[in-house]
Design brief:
The chain has about 240 residues and is of the alpha/beta class. It is built from 7 helices and 9 strands. A 9-stranded mixed beta sheet has the order 2-1-3-4-9-8-7-5-6, with helices on both faces.
Length: about 240
């Protein structure tokens, strides 16, 4: 049985809980699917040119992981763009969600000045802005949209998930997503703030502001990670 190699885009640190949780989260999902998975960490500082990016299609899937700001945010965004355009299964969590939103707004909607307030605090209208209430080391309810893939995978309408973030999608930009047919909001908090997005015409492209990988710390197989691994396993 060949390994399913998954590229983990982010700057690994043993002090980051999510980074510790991701390899076992993938392993739990792989065991549930009776496949083997090999996570490969790729520091964003290594994504400096076309040659480095050309190696990414050799992976079955790409996961853009938490703990931004990244050493090379533009490298992370370029990797996300490749996953989107090349149909490579993609999962973005926490910082990965934030940068997936920046990539989409810049390269699909055409908002080339889409900025992250953490990196550009002077931005007048940042796409990614500071949350009104910090979500550092807290859990929150996610309302899953009826008929969405997320609802199907979870098998329920509401779930509790863990966060460690202080930034999210600026609510002023949310209508730009709701009005399009190529991207779908799959989950929100109780106030309607976006917490899960998915690209419709893609094998698997999902991003969450929360950290589903934390489920592995309780020995649980997470349904979104399981589907990511399953889709990656089917990619040739």
């Amino acid at each position: 049985m060949s390994n399913i190699r998954i590229a983990l885009i982010g700057d690994y640190s043993a002090s980051v809980t999510a980074h510790i949780a991701i390899p076992p989260a993938l392993e739990l999902a792989a065991k549930a699917l009776d496949v083997e998975v090999e996570p490969v960490w790729i520091h964003t500082s290594k994504l400096t040119g076309k040659e480095e990016l050309r190696a990414l299609p050799g992976y079955r899937g790409i996961w853009c992981v938490p703990a931004s700001p990244y050493a090379n945010a533009e490298g992370a965004i370029a990797a996300i763009s490749l996953a989107r355009t090349a149909g490579i299964p993609f999962l973005g969590t926490c910082g990965g969600f934030q940068h997936a939103m920046i990539e989409y707004f810049r390269n699909v909607i055409g908002a080339t000045d889409a900025a992250h307030a953490e990196l550009n605090p002077e931005a007048e209208h940042p796409l990614i802005s500071k949350l009104s209430c910090s979500l550092v080391e807290v859990t929150g309810t996610i309302r899953l949209i009826p008929g969405s893939l997320a609802q199907k995978l979870y098998g329920t309408d509401r779930v509790e998930e863990g966060y460690r973030c202080s930034y999210g999608l600026n609510p002023d930009f949310a209508p730009s997503i709701h009005d399009r047919d190529d991207i779908r909001v799959e989950g929100t908090d109780d106030a309607g703030a976006i917490r899960i997005i998915r690209l419709r015409r893609h094998p698997f492209f999902m991003a969450t502001l929360f950290q589903p990988e934390r489920s592995s710390l309780k020995g649980m197989v997470h349904p979104l990670i399981r589907e990511f691994v399953s889709t990656s396993a089917g990619r040739r």
